[in-house]
Design goal:
86 residues; mainly alpha; 3 helices; 70% helix
Length: 86
C-alpha cells in the first residue's frame, strides 16, 4: 500500500475539516452572544447590588427577592434611556 502525501490547498481531505472549524466558530459566536445577553443581569445583581451569596429563607421569600432584583437590574440597564426622556 502506497501512502501519498498531499501538500497545498488542493487536498480533498481539508475541505470537510475546514467547514467543521467554521461551523464550530459560528456556534461559539452564537453561544457567546447568548451568554452575554443572559448573564449581564446576573452581573448587575452581583456587583451593583452586592448579592453574591444565596440565602435560603423559603421559596416565597427567595422568589420575591429575585423578582425584585431582576426588576432593579432592568431599571439599572435602562437608566440612561429613562433619564433622557425626563
Amino acid at each position: 500500500m502506497v501512502h501519498r502525501r498531499t501538500t497545498g490547498k488542493d487536498s480533498v481531505d481539508e475541505a470537510p475539516r475546514q467547514q467543521g472549524r467554521k461551523d464550530e466558530a459560528s456556534g461559539r459566536k452564537i453561544q457567546s452572544q447568548y451568554s452575554r445577553k443572559v448573564e449581564h443581569p446576573f452581573r448587575i445583581i452581583k456587583r451593583q447590588f452586592g448579592f453574591t451569596k444565596a440565602r435560603y429563607k423559603g421559596l416565597m421569600k427567595d422568589g420575591s427577592q429575585l423578582n425584585l432584583l431582576f426588576a432593579l437590574a432592568n431599571l439599572f440597564q435602562a437608566r440612561k434611556r429613562l433619564l433622557a426622556q425626563g
